[in-house]
Amino acid sequence: MIQLFHVHKEYPGDGPALTDVTLEVEKGEFVFLTGPSGAGKSTLLRLIFCAEPATSGQLLLFGKNVAKIRAAAIPQVRRNIGFVFQDFKLLPDRTVAENVALPLEVRGLPDRDVKRKVKMLLRSVGLEHRADKFPPSLSGGEQQRVAVVRALAPDPALLLADEPTGNLDPDRTLEVMELLHGANARGTTVVVATHDRTLLERYKRRTVALERGRVASDGAEIRRAAGAP
Amino acid sequence: MTFRPRYFLRRAADAMRRGPYVTAVGTGTIFVAVFVTGLFAGALGGAERLLAAWAGEVHLSVYLAPGADLEAARAAAARIAPGREVDAIPAVVALRRLAEGLGDDARLLDGVGPDALPDSVVVLAPGLSLAQARALAARLRQVPGAADVDFGNAWLEKLETFVARARAAAVVLLGALALATALLVSNTLRLAVFARRDEIEIMKLVGATDGFVGAPFLLEGLAQGLLGSSLAVLVLLAAHAAVAPRLRAAVKLAEGLRLADTLPWPLLGSLLAAGAAIGLLASALAILRFLKQRPSL
């Protein structure tokens, strides 16, 4: 699904954000990216999302070399990727239903199908009664659930989440994590960047730790070294 | 790009409803540009119509020096302008006609002697252009005893020169006006685009193409252009309805001036199309510049 080979990313005037990152995420995996602030987690997600190119190295996404994807084809690639942000990135002047409908409209689904799917998705996360509300009137947990539902609405093959629980209390964190795990159980590959240790301890999933832009440890490597299947 | 005209129209209408200030400024700018253009074109059309009307009723007056032989002058004028109607107007007749023209104010002429006005010869030459009339006037100066030849040339020559220069300047001016308007509206729409940068970013995040993001903005520009130019056309029609009767009352030549002379339908259609094109161009410039500046989206 995702393959990085000696990926290096440097911003002009800054030090390297990522250094010699080699990493592979299989289809259907659930992976935590962890590390302190500035470790390179968000940068790595942005590279995978095709928001910016790597300075050197190779990144393969769905088997395609990202560096060779034409700019005009990037929207097509992104339609297979859902993205969840710490700050939700919901449109405040559109209703909850309209926010969730956005990726479906972009894909050209007929209005009737969009309405039906949005209703079904909101019902699945217990937010059907909030469909006509505007995001600022929702709690943080509700907003993040809307953001996750929006990301999952088009059934993406890959879900990227950048500190999705960073602004939530423990109970709301659990709700959001359950949504992410539910998506993974249905076959979506999930990569979650977080520095919340309690999440890592609670959910025993593969954890890739970044430090100063380098892979400091990789749960998959550790399991392989320990002889786990 | 996924082509969804109803969706794009809905988004454009939503955006105009949510940003009435930007809509008003964009529409207002296009209104001013189209109105000024229409006013200019209408005035040119009217002036050309006046020139044509004048050409239909050219008459040249040869004023004779005191003591000149009126009949000899008439015969000479008839030889110079063969086939034209040539009349000899004695001073007494000219004075009587002036008095008739003055109506109730004719008493102003009380005490004026019968020789106050000169004898004259009038040549009627309908259908002449101003240049032909000028040439004929030059030949009529050869009439024995001619002191002056008049064909209303002073203001007509000014009008003709003005129309010729205005026509040449119009192309340059209107081109510059259209460009300036497009840039002005484009900058206004850039503000609208900037105000909606979060929306654009999120749409790009969920896989929208540049075309999908830009289509509602293009429709918004098109709508502003059509709205502004439609308003301008309505105001131009109202201005014509208000001014034309007064002009007809004030200037005899303008009696036949009709809407089709100043604001013909092809001109009004062109103004509507130009307004729409300016709006479309301005919005395209605005959204393209924004997307170009944010390639990482």
| Average residue pLDDT of chain A | 88
| Residues in helix, % of chain A | 25-40%
What sort of overall outline of chain A do the alpha carbons produce when their principal axes are compared? globular
Strand order of the largest sheet of chain A: 6-7-8-3-9-10
Would you tell me the structural class of the helices and strands of chain A? Answer: alpha/beta
Give the beta-strand count of chain A.
10
Query: Mind telling me which CATH architecture of the domain at 27-49 and 75-210 in chain A this is?
Result: 3-Layer(aba) Sandwich
Main beta sheet of chain B, described?
A: 4 strands, antiparallel
Q: Are there runs of chain B of 5+ residues with pLDDT below 50, and where? A: none
CATH superfamily placement of the domain at 27-49 and 75-210 in chain A: P-loop containing nucleotide triphosphate hydrolases
Terminal Cα separation of chain A, in Å? Answer: 19 Å
Major sheet of chain A, described briefly?
6 strands, mixed
Order of helices and strands of chain B: HHEHEHEHEHHHHH
Helix and strand pattern of chain A: EEEHEEHEHHHEHEHEEH
